[in-house]
Amino acid sequence: MKSVLRTIGFAVILFTLSACSFGASTAEEMYEHLEKALELEAEFQEQQEPLVELEKEEHKIYEEMITLTTEQMDQINALSEEALATINEREERLQKEQASIQASQEEFKKVEALVADLEEENVQQSAEELVTTMEERYSTYQLLNEAYTKAIALEKEMYTMVTDENMTMEQFTEQVEKINTAYEDVSKANKTFNDLTNKYNTLKPAFYEQAGLDIVFEGNDTEVDGASDNESEGQEDAS
């Protein structure tokens, strides 16, 4: 079975205004909402490491399980229960992750409403590109979430199937192939999401600069690498 370790996230690049004029400008209002949207993704970010660890744990269980025979059903059943427990926890963390992204998206809509109020054309164009990129990122996250949800649902089916002594090797192999295909979709969406995240993190400070905001870089708590560099994939024989 293919294992794809999710390495998705938002490079936590925070900025603060070192000085504000009397009466906030449109750009300053946008800054407030942009940084608030980032803060609302904290819960999303907190789920990433635990999700990866749960994936590793589940894959280790799978590798142990496929070494057993039908004469060892007690062990297979026990391992199946362990695997299902890790998947249930992944589902719970996925729900928290999605809620965090949705909250961020709602806050970001306040940015979209302000773009037309920017007076300088070049600043407005910069803001439009920033907004378009973030909207694509949110849409891609939804695709990623759906693909990942489908993949773990197929895994749950597999761990239920293996407790049936009448299951055939053909049925098992077919299910593993479905899981592998599902994780290929996860991998593609994962890479696109990370690419858009990195693009956004380049566009945002550029927009601040064009808008004339006096910003201070606060730090980068989480490094985001492209999924293609961090995925761990290995094909296991269904035997």
UniProtKB/TrEMBL annotation:
The record's InterPro entries line, in alphabetical order, gives: Lipoprot_YkyA-like, YkyA-like_sf
Q: Pfam families, alphabetically?
A: YkyA
Q: Which domain of life is it from?
A: Bacteria
Signal peptide residues are 1-26
Q: Where is this region: Disordered?
A: 219-239
Coiled coil where? Answer: 37-128
Descriptive protein name = Putative cell-wall binding lipoprotein
Q: Which organism is it from?
A: Aureibacillus halotolerans
Q: Top-down, what is the taxonomic lineage of the species of origin?
A: Bacteria, Bacillati, Bacillota, Bacilli, Bacillales
